[in-house]
Specification:
The complex is a heterotrimer of chains A (536), B (279) and C (380). Chain A is mainly α and 536 residues long. Chain A contains 22 helices and seven strands. In chain A, strands 4-3-2-1-5 form a five-stranded antiparallel beta sheet. In chain A, strands 6-7 form a two-stranded antiparallel sheet. With 279 residues, chain B is of the alpha/beta class. Chain B has a single domain (2-278), classed as Rossmann fold (3-Layer(aba) Sandwich), CATH 3.40.50.300. Chain B is 39% helix and 23% strand. Chain B is built from eleven helices and ten strands. In chain B, the strands form two sheets. A six-stranded mixed beta sheet of chain B has the order 6-7-8-3-9-10, sandwiched between helices. Chain B has a four-stranded antiparallel beta sheet with strand order 2-1-4-5, with helices on one face. The longest helix of chain B has 16 residues, at 263-278. Chain C is built from 15 helices and four strands. In chain C, strands 1-4 form a two-stranded antiparallel sheet. Chain C has a two-stranded antiparallel sheet with strand order 2-3. Classes of the chains: A mainly alpha (536), B alpha/beta (279), C mainly alpha (380). Chain C: Keywords: Cell membrane, Membrane, Transmembrane, Transmembrane helix. Chain C: It is found in: Cell inner membrane. Chain C: It comes from Halomonas nitroreducens.
């Protein structure tokens, strides 16, 4: 009732204001509507002040929030002589810096003697607080409304309840509604209302949890019991959350490992070639992303998308160069290939250091990749990792298709199984070698593009991954792409599961030791190639 | 230094010269006994319920088309491949399925591979020296010396296999036939009770084949010999008993004449040849 | 049979070994003489700095010999020998740390500085005993030896060979590097062990001590070389070569291949440990960097350049590469990695037998165990 009563004059005023061009009012003379709104506040009666505040809100004036905040802080004042309203910036000393309350432009300093404060009492303070809170809940932008509602959790005063409850009824967005209901429930719980516990059941919000645990310690036995029950429930949910989070980080790390290892699995598995420069091919992919972004400043998203084919090409060409200049001379000598490609990796690293810089370069993440996907209040998944995970799976699926469905894949498998026979059937083994190596290297380039979104791009980027990727290939079983996928993802998850318990470094050491021991048990990995050919 | 010297002076290196009683119990006749052996690779049954008995001192030829499981059978006997089911006994005392390759070799089973496998960086002399029956533990090997007796034995074998002139040449430079001979020589140095010989005459000239036949038949009696061979002429020249393997099990067994009359064998061989022509 | 003709003394009758030892001893003598007899200003004077540098090279040479023993003769490409080297080095470093006593920055009579800094109250259990030189020296052999024994036992038993073995040896040293970087391990973390004062009571900064260390390293190299030579010239060495070229065949001859591999691997690891132990007092520091996989691969390059399977080639390679490294990093550090990388490629592609292969190009094959040439036979 009071609300409506307060709103009527406000509405009238608003109609009035609507008739006047209110824009860019500079002085009381130029902005009579604003002046009138503030004038209404300057009254002795607190009841009238209350109505004036309501009128202000109803006016929809964009300065309302600042006025009300100033009023709440006691900084909205009036110059005695001129009747001009100002906002005090700093009320210390004798002369206070002020701004004009209508234009919010600096108005020099004023002596505190020439100013009259527009006073408020406790009732008004409450009204102001709730009004302010509600103000933000009225805006059109759903995101801003949610933000405002979240702010209210645990910050509700008794006076705010009625308008909030009215808002809950009107609110269209479910999320805002839920948040508001929770905020109200938290307030009720703080007041000792055991029925409010129900409203908070299963909430992952820390404020709700704090309120519940406070309630669980209360003297009211019924309340305490209800609250502890709800708390236990929440703990359960949190545990699940943490589990999901660990799994997510594990899969994310695993997807990076898969990306890094899968190209290696091709060259190692198919050609028996140990390519120690594989990490550096990844580095080239990452630097290609950086280069693309330098070429297309201001368009990191486009640059990143273009970097995918470019990174593949750059790395594949580098791979072909390595194959032609080094590896083709070392057929059937895997250990020598290992050493030679290690030399290539040193050269590539130093090349980048000399030509670009020994320092790390930053690759910008496009907007659509930053931020996170909120699953619930306790759990949000960072988008860039999600993208990399998806990318890794795509690359894997693509490779599977190439190996299973294309002529190249068929020839590659033929050469892998019996080189001499394949040759005699007219497969040009040399060409297959080159293409296989290019493919494996290109995939390394793709891995580099993806990595540039997660880590620093520097000359050492490749080195940090080479041992891990070999571990993945060996663990998964050489020559088996599925094995690489399973091994990569599971090693990532194992690492993340161990991490909180053992610390990052120790977790890594444990994983390495685990693989070393695993290789003793199953020297051919998780998914070994079987048959006579593998017995040799 | 004195400790190490004393190790060198202990005469265990010469143990092999003392005729030791064979630990292999052949009183019941067979020296090698395979029963119901099955092994599969990826669902493919390379050996399928194979039964085979080799008597002490026998010379047995095993023939069969490609993929009949001959080499896999050798792998099982020498401990390289473990069968899925079945039993393999050496004499009536030693269960070969519980032993690894070196242990089986020390029992007295020697093997010549299908592809001649010699130590290419080592000389003919050294190849034979390594093959010789001796204490093959680490320290005795470290302190071992090539004594006069050893030298004499190696000379003898080198004469037998006709590689005396090439004794100081690395095995890698030998011709294919010479490598086959060297490998047979290494078998002789081992003095095994049972020799498994996989395609001994591949790549040999007519004359070399004759000598190999002579050698193998000469061995039989003192030692048991199992020869896997494709060359029918060679098999005919040495065989007393022939076993035909087909698809991992025994198709026929008997003298060469009996076997070659067997219609199933003929069919298998003609069929296989027809297949090969198509391929 | 003459008792003195044991397997260990056999190499002393080989021409190549005599030549190697002669050159080594002569070099040691010349360097000592030029260091001691000539005044500092003389153009031929070898400064103590150079002596120490040469001492460092000799440590690397011993390490290379150890790697060649397993790679050249057994065919096991270990990419983790840096770990054994570093373990030997850490054992020595722990002894040297204990020798500092209360002369450290914090003046604690027992605890090394870094432990005081980390606010540790007492010595971890595994630091006990390192105040005694004999114990430390024993550990120099046992720590790498035990690691090699356990690791090798597991690996060889399950027949992990070839590139698989290379990769897991690399993982081994990588894991150890990560572990030693941790402060909690109690080995000084990132900074490692340093600020050594004296060794067996001799001042480590004194010129005489440095010269003695150089000579000791030279002698260790000589002994290590003779030991390896004795192993490879024995029948056991021939079993190794046989294993390298045809492992399955060797098994079928009745040799328990995995035990031979394990034996040689452990001997090699111990030699690497000795090299590390001699290295630490000369360079004055040991830190987890020695565990880095790159260092281990570099060792392999020394051996490859010199020519594997010859032992002396490993020495030549280690000296050459490290001399080049000193020169390059002094003159144009940028170019060093290019040179090193290029060397890896060139050696493997163009010079698979290394420098020793070039040297032996016109020489007849090495003497076979022939009655007329091999001493063991001659006495028979």
């Amino acid at each position: 009732m009071r609300m409506i009563r307060a709103l009527v004059p406000g509405l009238l005023l608003w109609l009035l204001v609507g008739l006047v061009p209110s824009a860019q009012a500079q002085t009381p003379g130029q902005d009579p509507a604003g002046q009138a709104l503030l004038e209404a506040l300057d009254t002795r009666s607190y009841a009238d002040k209350g109505e004036a505040i309501a009128a202000l809100v109803a006016s929809g004036d964009e300065r309302t929030r600042r006025w009300l905040e100033a009023l709440l802080a006691g900084k909205l004042q009036r110059q005695e002589d001129t009747g001009r309203f100002i906002v005090v910036l700093e009320n210390r000393g004798r002369h206070w810096p002020v701004v004009d309350a209508l234009s919010f432009e600096a108005a020099g300093e004023m002596s505190r003697r020439e100013l009259d404060r527009i006073g408020i009492n406790n009732a008004l303070r409450g009204q102001l607080q709730s009004t302010l809170a509600v103000l933000d809940l009225r805006v059109d932008d759903v995101g801003a409304r949610r933000e405002a509602a979240r702010e209210l959790l645990g910050n509700i005063e008794a006076a705010m309840l009625p308008p909030l409850q009215a808002l809950v009824a009107d609110e269209a967005d479910g999320e805002v509604k839920r948040l508001l209901a929770q905020a109200i429930a938290i307030h009720r719980l703080e007041q000792g209302d055991a029925a409010a516990v129900e409203g908070l059941a299963g909430s992952l919000n820390p404020e709700a949890r704090a309120a519940l645990s406070a309630a669980a310690r209360s003297d009211d036995a019924a309340l305490a019991e209800a609250a502890s029950g709800a708390l236990a429930d929440i703990e359960q949910k949190l545990k699940l959350n943490r589990g999901v989070e660990t799994l997510y980080f594990g899969l994310s790390l695993g997807s990076v490992l898969v990306l890094a290892a899968i190209g290696l699995a091709i060259t190692f598995g198919v050609m028996g070639v140990i390519n120690m420069a594989h990490g550096e091919l990844m580095m080239l992919g990452a630097y290609t992303t950086w280069g693309m972004q330098q070429l297309l400043p201001g368009q990191p998203g486009l640059a990143l998308i273009l970097a995918i084919p470019a990174g593949f090409l750059v790395a594949a060409l580098a791979g072909i160069a390595i194959e032609r200049s080094v590896i083709q001379f070392l057929k059937g000598r895997p250990l020598e290939t290992l050493l030679a490609t290690f030399g290539v990796s040193l050269i590539l690293q130093q090349l980048v250091r000399t030509l670009i810089s020994p320092l790390n370069r930053t690759v910008v993440s496009p907007e659509w990749m930053s931020g996170s996907l909120m699953i619930n209040e306790g759990l949000s998944l960072t988008l860039n990792r999600l993208f990399v995970l998806g990318f890794a799976l795509l690359v894997f699926a693509g490779l599977m298709l190439v190996m299973r469905r294309t002529r190249l894949g068929l020839e590659v498998r033929a050469v892998t199984q019996n080189r001499a026979m394949a040759r005699s059937m007219g497969i040009r083994a040399t060409r297959v070698d080159i293409l296989t190596f290019a493919l494996g290297s290109g995939v390394a380039g793709l891995a580099g593009v993806a990595l540039s979104q997660l880590t620093n791009v520097g000359p050492n980027l490749g080195q940090n991954y080479i041992i891990d990727s070999f571990m993945v290939v060996v663990f998964g079983g050489v020559g088996n792409l599925w094995g690489t996928l399973v091994a990569g993802l599971s090693l990532g998850v194992i690492n993340q599961v161990l991490e909180p318990w053992a610390g990052a470094v120790l977790a890594k050491i444990l994983v390495l030791v685990f693989i070393i021991l695993f290789i003793q048990k199953r020297p051919r990995g998780l998914f070994p190639q079987k048959g006579r050919a593998a017995e040799g | 230094m004195n400790f190490l010297t004393s190790l060198a002076d202990r005469d265990r290196v010469f143990d092999f010269l003392v005729p030791v009683d064979s630990p292999v119990d052949v009183r019941h006749g067979p020296i090698l006994y395979l029963e119901d052996v099955t092994v599969s690779f990826d669902g493919f049954r390379a050996i399928d319920r194979l039964n085979l008995t080799i008597d002490d001192g026998e010379l047995r030829c095993i023939i069969g088309p490609n993929g009949a499981g001959k080499t896999t059978m050798m792998d099982i006997i020498t401990g390289k491949t473990r069968p899925d089911t079945g039993q393999v006994w050496f004499g009536s005392r030693h269960n070969l399925l519980t032993m690894n390759e070196p242990a089986i070799a020390s029992l007295g089973i020697g093997r010549k591979f299908q592809k001649p496998t010699t130590f290419e960086a080592l000389t003919v002399f050294e190849n034979l020296e390594l093959a010789m029956a001796a204490d093959k533990r680490i320290l005795p090997t470290l302190t071992a010396r090539t004594t006069g007796e050893i030298r004499a034995r190696i000379e003898e074998v080198m004469t037998t296999i006709g590689l005396v002139e090439l004794r100081h040449r690395p095995a890698g430079i030998l011709s294919h036939g010479q490598k086959q001979w060297l490998e047979i020589g290494m078998l002789l140095m081992q003095r095994p009770r049972l020799l498994l010989v996989d395609e001994p005459v591949a790549g040999m000239t007519e004359q070399e084949m004759e000598r190999t036949a002579e050698l193998l038949t000469g061995l039989a009696g003192q030692q048991s010999v199992v020869v896997v061979e494709h060359d029918m002429g060679f098999v005919r020249s040495i065989a007393r008993t022939v076993t035909v393997l087909h698809q991992g099990s025994v198709l026929a067994e008997g003298s060469m004449n009996q076997v070659s009359m067997d219609p199933r064998v003929v069919e298998v061989y003609l069929g296989a040849e027809a297949d090969e022509e198509v391929a | 049979m003459l008792a003195s003709r044991s397997w260990l003394s056999r190499p002393l009758h080989e021409r190549s070994t005599r030549l190697f030892l002669g050159v080594l001893i002569a070099a040691l003598a010349v360097v000592s003489l030029l260091n001691l007899a000539l005044p500092a200003g003389h153009p031929l004077h070898v400064s103590t700095y150079t002596v120490t540098l040469l001492g460092k090279y000799l440590c690397y040479a011993l390490l290379a010999v150890a790697v060649d023993l397993v790679w050249g003769y057994l065919g096991i490409l270990s990419l983790g020998h840096g770990a054994f080297f570093a373990l030997g080095g850490y054992a020595m470093g722990m002894y040297l740390m204990r020798q500092i006593g209360d002369r450290g920055v914090y003046g604690d009579p027992v605890l090394p500085d870094f432990m005081v800094f980390l606010d540790w109250q007492s010595l971890p259990w595994y630091w006990h005993g390192f105040d005694m030189a004999w114990f430390a020296l024993l550990t120099v052999l046992l720590a790498p030896g035990l690691l090699a024994l356990v690791f090798g036992f597991l690996a060889f038993r399950s027949r992990v060979t070839g590139v698989y073995l290379s990769i897991i040896t690399q993982a081994l040293t990588f894991a150890l590097m990560l572990a030693f970087f941790r402060n909690e391990m109690g080995f000084g973390g990132n900074n490692g062990l340093t600020d050594f004062k004296e060794l067996l009571g001799f001042d480590l900064t004194a010129d005489a001590t440095r010269l003695w260390l150089f000579l000791a390293t030279g002698m260790a190299l000589a002994l290590g070389y003779v030991l390896c030579r004795a192993i490879v010239a024995s029948k056991l060495g021939r079993v190794c070569v046989a294993t390298r070229d045809a492992e399955a065949r060797t098994r079928f001859l009745g040799y328990r291949v995995e035990r031979f591999q394990l034996f040689v691997f452990v001997v090699s690891a111990m030699l690497a440990g000795v090299a590390g132990a001699l290295y630490v007092p000369q360079v004055g520091i040991i830190n987890p960097g020695e565990f880095s996989p790159i260092f281990s691969i570099e060792i392999v390059l020394w051996v490859a350049l010199g020519g594997r399977g010859t032992l002396y080639g490993a020495v030549i390679g280690a000296l050459l590469v490290n001399y080049a490294k000193t020169v390059f990093t002094g003159v144009m550090p940028e170019a060093w990695l290019f040179a090193l990388g290029g060397l890896f490629v060139l050696v493997t592609v163009l010079l698979p037998k290394g420098i020793a292969g070039l040297l032996a190009y016109r020489r007849p094959r090495r003497a076979d165990p022939d009655p007329s040439t091999t001493p063991g036979e001659a006495s028979a």
